[in-house]
Amino acid sequence: MEIIWIGLAAFVGGILAALLGWLESQAPFNPRKFGSSAVRAFIAGIGLAAVYEYKEFLTPLDLLVAFLGGAGVDVIGNRAAGAISSLRG
After folding, report:
1. Burial class (CB in 10 A: 0-12, 13-18, 19+), 81
2. Closest of 63, 57, 82 to residue 10, by C-alpha
3. What residue segments make up the domains of the chain, in order of their start?
4. Model pTM?
């Protein structure tokens, strides 16, 4: 059951980072950009759940680390995509 909570916390972190980035940009909602963030959040959830060192029980700190990890994956993914697109021209 711990794997589900870790994955869910990471996914929610990635989605929240995407939503906060959209709100900060004050741009109209772009489903394509949000879709790529949702995919990154899903991958972060699976990845963090797969590599998490399982304990007998979860603590709030474990969930916070997974949440921040999911948010970090989305932020770094957006920065990398922006850098690549700026290099193209």
Report:
1. middle
2. 63
3. 2-88
4. 0.86
**Contact call for residues 69 and 13 (beta carbons, < 8 A):** yes
Cα(58)–Cα(7) distance, integer angstroms: 13
Longest dimension (CA), the chain: 51
The token pair at 12 is: 């929610």
* Coil vs helix vs strand at 28: coil
Q: Which residue has the tokens 């948010």?
A: 71
Query: pLDDT tens digit string along 8-58?
Result: 999 999 999 999 999 998 999 989 889 999 999 999 999 998 888 776 778
